Amino acid sequence: MFMLLCRCRLGYFHVVNNDYTHWEMYAIGGSANPTINSQGNRFVAPNDRFSKEVTKHEDAPESEWKNWNWRTEGDMLVNGAFFTASGAAGASSSYARASSLSARPSSLVASLTSSSGALICKKGSPC
């Protein structure tokens, strides 16, 4: 199982084709108005009914974070997982221009991440 948590502050984050499982509080969190574009990811929520939300808007009241540009497109939300999108409805064109790569369908995440994991690096050798 692969899990990646994003401490996202300021700037643009394109979260693509990851497999988020077994998070404790949330899978993607941000503060200081980051732009987050989540595409083609699989989010499998834990069984804890209070830990189903994928997103966490850190250190900001709703009146502030509701203007942050966070969106989900083609993500698979499993076991009650939910993504709280925010920002302007017309922001999708700016996401398209800023995307760093094309997302594959979320149904392929298991095969795309099947051999993922931590790099094993040795000092003096390339990783």
From TrEMBL:
<dbReference type="InterPro" id="IPR012334">
    <property type="entry name" value="Pectin_lyas_fold"/>
</dbReference>
<keyword id="KW-0964">Secreted</keyword>
<comment type="similarity">
    <text>Belongs to the polysaccharide lyase 1 family.</text>
</comment>
<dbReference type="InterPro" id="IPR045032">
    <property type="entry name" value="PEL"/>
</dbReference>
<keyword id="KW-0134">Cell wall</keyword>
<dbReference type="InterPro" id="IPR018082">
    <property type="entry name" value="AmbAllergen"/>
</dbReference>
<keyword id="KW-0732">Signal</keyword>
<dbReference type="InterPro" id="IPR011050">
    <property type="entry name" value="Pectin_lyase_fold/virulence"/>
</dbReference>
<protein>
    <recommendedName>
        <fullName>Pectate lyase</fullName>
    </recommendedName>
</protein>
